[in-house]
Amino acid sequence: MRDYKITKEDVDSTFGDGFRLHKGFIWGVGNSPYQTEGGYNGKDEPLNNWYEWERSGKAEPTRGATRFYTRHPEDYKKSREISLNHFRLGVEWARIQPTTRPGDLSVPEIDYDAVKHYASMIAAVRDFGMEPVVTLHHFTHPAWIGADMWLHEDNLELYEKYVAFTVRAINKMLISQFAQEPVGIWESTNEPNIVASASYLLGQFPSGPNRGLHSYFRAFTNQIQAHISAYEIIHRIYKEEKWEKPRVTYASVAFFAYWLDKMFFDLLLARYRGIPLSRLEEYLIAKSKDFHLKLSEIQKTAGGRALFAKAFETVFKWVLEKLHGISSFQRLVERVYSSEYESLTDIIAIDYYDPFLGNYLRLPHFEEIKELKPSFHVHHWEWVQNPQAFRTFLNAYSEKDGIPIHVFENGICNRVKRGRAVPRADGWTRPLFLKAYLFELAKAVKDGAAVEGYFHWSITDNYEWGSYEPRFGLIGIDYEDDSKRLKHDSLGDDAAGTFKQIIQALYEGSIKDLREAFT
Question: Model confidence over 399-420: pLDDT tens digits?
Answer without folding.
Answer: 999 999 999 999 999 999 999 9
